[in-house]
Specification:
Blueprint (H helix, E strand, L loop, with lengths): L7 H7 L13 E6 L6 E8 L5 E9 L2 H13 L5 H15 L24 H20 L2
Antiparallel strand pairs: 1-2, 2-3
């Protein structure tokens, strides 16, 4: 028997998104939207002096899976380089498409039950896509 798509851990993550307030002085802001379900995630990024994500702010208007993914992203993105965030996005995309191993991101395996639900993949990717683009944009602006 497979694990349920929506479980207590998904719901806990969805209800406890860290950095859930927008940044006033972001270096870059990106909003991503899922055309399938209308979920939206806006990510603000400020890089530190070393070029790593120093601060992140988010506005999440998404389903429980999108919220849970945003929670995992926000909890673990500070201190990462734009390249590391892009690599996490790419690994998540590949894994969801069945073309890769479980990404090296804390807690991401919570989405294993969603692998067979391709219509849910865009919502799971939103925060990672927005954060990767925002970090890259901030880096390019330096």
């Amino acid at each position: 028997m497979s694990a349920p798509l929506y479980n207590a851990e998904i719901l806990r993550l969805a209800a406890s998104i860290p950095h859930h307030e927008r940044l006033e002085n972001a270096d870059a802001t990106v909003e991503k939207r899922s055309a399938i379900c209308g979920s939206r995630v806006t990510v603000d990024v400020a890089l530190d002096q070393a070029g790593r994500v120093g601060e992140v702010g988010m506005l999440v208007r998404a389903c429980a899976l999108g919220q849970a993914s945003s929670s995992l992203l926000a909890a673990n993105v500070v201190g990462r380089t734009p390249e590391e965030v892009a690599a996490a996005r790419d690994a998540l995309t590949d894994w969801l498409a069945g073309n890769g191993e479980t990404p090296d991101w804390p807690g991401i395996d919570i989405f294993t039950p969603a692998l067979d639900y391709t219509a849910r993949h865009p919502s799971i990717r939103l925060a990672f896509e927005a954060a990767a683009e925002a970090a890259a944009t901030a880096q390019a602006a330096r």
